[in-house]
Amino acid sequence: MFHIVIDLEMNPISRSMKDIRKFLIDEVIEIGAVKLDENYKQISEFQCYVHPEFGSVKKHITELTGITNDKLENQPAFPESFQKFWDWIGTWDMNLYSWGPSDIKQLKHECAYKIPGFDVPRMESLWRDIQKDFDERLGLSNNLGLRHAIGAMDRNFEGTAHTALADASNTAAILALLQNEEEFLKTMKPVIDLLNKEELSQSIGDMYPELMNLNLDE
Predict the structure, then answer these.
(1) pLDDT (tens digit per residue) in 124-161
(2) Residue 28 in contact with residue 9, Cβ under 8 Å?
């Protein structure tokens, strides 16, 4: 069995396209993923850009992701790009993962709208939310951002945030850590100790700057 960690970058569809927005609010403009073996070791990676069918890339999306309209001009649309991604996976004998629920929600809607006949329920059945697993393991009631989670692990974020492949690779590192309870507790001990303090009342996300200043070797 393979473990596939995916990340999507998306662009909102203009509010003027009311008929389209009944089915889709956003479109995928980049797919990034890493493939892990049964031991959660990375063995392959995938990245492609996707040409949006309903409008151009918004300015704030370009500022966030670095993806410009020029970069997407000659790229394939979603059906072809997603097929390349699915061919790269090459099997249904897998688990799919993402950081948070937004990526699977997007694929459910976009596949249903643009790729009629694709087995969306089967894909959804293989999906797991790593953010949810990570937060539950720490006993958090608030969702922790990916960069915050990586920082809490005393790791540097590898690559550029909000680029699909980098986000997928960093998420895969968290997934691997979650498989080893002893290593997880050792790595996350400073955070767990902080969370166990009686006076702690704010969310860990709000405390991120303090967490990042901890000497995790102590």
Answers:
(1) 999 999 999 999 998 887 788 999 899 989 899 999 98
(2) yes
Backbone angles phi, psi at 38, to 5 degrees: -65, -15
CA distance 87 to 103: 19
Whether the CB-CB separation of 163 and 61 falls below 8 Å is answered with no
Taking residues 106-131, what's their average pLDDT?
96
Global pTM reads 0.88
- Listed in sequence order, the residues at least 6 apart from 112 whose beta carbon sits closer than 8 Å to its beta carbon are 23, 118, 120
In this structure, what are the phi and psi dihedrals at residue 26, rounded to the nearest 5 degrees? -130, 165
CA–CA dist 27, 9 (Å, integer): 8
* pLDDT tops 90 at residue 205: no
* C-beta of residue 129 within 8 angstroms of C-beta of residue 146: no
C-alpha 109/C-alpha 77 separation (Å) is 15
Q: What are the residues facing 2 on neighbouring strands?
A: 94
